[in-house]
Design brief:
The chain is mainly α. The protein is about 80% helix and about 0% strand. The structure holds MU-OXO-diiron (FEO). MU-OXO-diiron binds next to helix 1, helix 2 and helix 3.
Length: about 170
Amino acid sequence: MLSTAIEKALNKQITIEAESSQIYLAMASWAEVQGLGGVAEFMYAQSDEEREHMLKLFRYVNERGGHSQVSKLSAPDTEFGSFKDMFTTLFEHEVFVSQSINNLVDIALTEKDYATHNFLQWYVAEQIEEEAQARTILDKIKLIGNEKSGLYLFDNDIKQFAMVRNVQ
Ligand code: FEO
């Protein structure tokens, strides 16, 4: 059985993951209208992943005798400046999510909820991967700079990134 504090914190994380999915969906749309199909595919895949993160938490809360909540979500931005700005936003968002997961781990320990602590380890590992991936992409963008040809190659390259993540 979940304590009230854990249930509340997990439901808050459910909202964060759902909002992450919406943010990346908005990024997918923005990239698509800019004509960068590869980046758009990557963002669609990211958005799907975030929904999976949300669902995994959602099912866990009910499985442990809590009540998963579907709550109102904030509307994401619709414009993202440049591709560099957009991936910087993505990276910063993932850092924020990692902090939120760490906070949850803290609460699980305080509440002596070792099952939830164990469950959260998957998220801890996932966040390391997501931050590393965002950092790698940002490094690539810095190398490309503002060159059109570089952007074309990057758009192709990132498609593979999305595919690799999907088969894992
Ligand atoms: Fe579910 Fe990218 O954090």
